[in-house]
Every structure is written in C-alpha cells, then in structure tokens.
Design goal:
It contains 5 helices and 7 strands; from the N terminus they run βααββββββααα. α2 crosses α3 (124-147) and α3 (124-147) packs antiparallel against α5 (193-213). It has helices at residues 13-20, 23-29, 124-147, 152-159, 193-213, and strands spanning 2-9, 33-35, 43-52, 55-68, 73-82, 87-100, 103-115.
C-alpha cells in the first residue's frame, strides 16, 4: 500500500533539513514512536505503537536512515513485529525537502505491507485517516521543536553575552536528556479508525439481512 503526504513548516529549508539529520528528534516528533537504543550509524531500533480498529499493536523493529545532502532527499527502510497480534510490517518512507522562501515543504511517500491479524484492519480508508493524523501531528511537533531553539544572537542578547562569545564551535554539544520541550502526543485511536470499522461491519450486516429477506 502507498500513502503520499505533504506538509509545510514555517522555517528555513536549511533548518528543516538539519532536523531530518537528527533521527532521535524525528522519533520524538512522531506520535507512538520510541527509540529502544541510541542511534548508531543511522541504524534505528525502535518501537511504534498504533491502533487500527479494535486492535492495538506495538511493533518492535529496526530501520536504516539514508540521506542525500545535495538533493535534500532521504529514506527510511525498516520492518517490525507485534508479537501480541502476530502481525508484521515492512516498508520504506521516502522524503524530500523543498525551499519555498519563507517556508519549507516536505513530501512523504510511504510504501508498506502488513501481514498477520492486523492486516484485516489495514483497509485504505482507515490507513489514510491514520496517516493524515500522524502527518499533521509530526509536522506540528517538528514546528514546535524548531521554534524552541532560539537564534544564537537572540540567545546571547537574552543572556547578556557578546556576539563574539556565541560563535559556533566545530563540535556540537550534546543535548541533555529531557531538555527538549514536551511534544504533542496523540492517541491514534481518535483517528476515527474504529468508527470506520464499525461502519463497514454495519453495512455488511445490512447487505446480508437484505439478501436473507429476499
């Protein structure tokens, strides 16, 4: 199944592309996603919690992030397994960053497949509604994360430090754990997935009763 999304961030393209080079930040911005181990060589080990219809799943898996700095494009390949529902998912997410002057556009193209118990609820309408919600929340969280980092000149002014003392050093200091702002989290069950499932069940029963009465 393929899902295409596009969203806009009110920030320079350079800043947005820099954010896409920080896998830990991207995971923080995606509702339901959690890193199980620190990122090494763009290898991600994470857990992704999702709810489709009446089934909740927590996929544990691995992924690899690839980046093309010159083209400002990249991709994430991965796979995961939910032992509770005996379901598996694998896929690839390709993304591209475009400079639009005062803002930056990001295009996503996600291709994936689901097998196991959860596959029966991965209908196009349900997945599209879930993807729309996740994309909106990811964009909001990324926007919030970018806005929470003050410009060096402004930060120096607020702290009473001269501009010469704020020049960047070759090495970037590590961000202390827990220092990032709390990002928006979402219960994906609110994406109307359950209502869509029940609507399909009701329609199916109506057709069945209609055939029986005839």
């Amino acid at each position: 199944m393929d899902v295409k999304q596009r969203f806009t961030i009110a920030a320079p393209a350079d800043d947005v592309w820099q954010a896409f080079q920080d896998p830990a930040l991207l995971v923080d911005c995606l509702p339901g996603a959690t890193l199980r181990e620190p990122v090494e060589d763009n290898q991600l080990k994470l857990t992704f919690q999702v709810k489709l219809g009446p089934i909740s799943a927590a996929f544990a898996g691995e992924g690899e992030l690839r980046l093309d700095d010159e083209a400002r494009t990249g991709g994430l390949q991965g796979r995961g397994t939910d032992r509770k529902s005996n379901s598996r998912v694998k896929g690839e997410a390709a993304f591209a960053v475009f400079d639009e002057g005062a803002a930056t556009a990001v295009e996503l193209n996600v291709s994936f497949s689901i097998t196991g118990k959860l596959a029966q609820f991965s209908r196009e309408g349900i997945v599209k509604a879930l993807a729309d919600q996740l994309t909106r929340d990811f964009a909001d969280n990324l926007q919030q994360a970018l806005q929470s980092e003050p410009e060096p000149a402004q930060a120096a002014t607020d702290a009473g430090v001269s501009a010469d003392e704020t020049r960047p050093t070759p090495e970037r200091a590590e961000t202390p754990a827990g220092s990032r702002p709390r990002l928006k989290s979402v219960d994906t069950s609110s994406v109307n997935a359950l209502s869509l499932v029940w609507r399909m069940i009701v329609n199916w029963w109506r057709r069945l009763l209609g055939k029986s009465s005839a």
